[in-house]
Amino acid sequence: MVTLALPKGRLFEPVTALLEQGGFAVAAALRSNPRRLVLEDGELRVVVVKDADVPAYVSQGVADGGFVGLDHILEAGADLLRLRRFSFGQCRMCLLARGDRPVPSMTKPFRLATKYPRLAQKLLRQRGLWAEVVPLAGSVELAATLDLAPLVLDLVETGTTLRENGLMIVETWLSVAPYFVANRGSWATGFEALRAVLHRLGGGHEELSDH
Length: 211
Hints:
The chain is an alpha/beta fold. The protein is built from nine helices and eleven strands.
């Protein structure tokens, strides 16, 4: 039986719909039992975890594969195979600031708040910038609003949250899409089973990255 890690956040609904379209009976169980964390239908087991935890469950072999955004893949730095990129749930990793003030200067060291400290450091290095990164668990918009940090790095999907909190986009640093990822060992030993799952999800089994 193939075990997949499914994120309980913003990707939960589109991934459940994808499983439903693939004819997996576990999709109905996910909809009728949204609080269950482990469900199975005889051919597929699904483990519902926090979005950021998907890379850990897959890389450690608890799950053979899973669905996760590029943001969490890069933040975790886990050794995963990226087998398919999806068109749904795409968004942007953006540098944000208060809209009622001049854009803070980045020519000298500055403070940056984010839920993605590891990824933030990588993106800063790519741009030749230096910042004190303040790690937060949530509501990073408040960091700029309440002057914890003049700049924040976070995902932007529709822009509604930005407008509601008086923030603006300074720069877009990364395009983020969901991926189907697999454990390298599971792919090597259970290739046919995972390949069959991918086929039913409407995708091939081409490896898209060397991660």
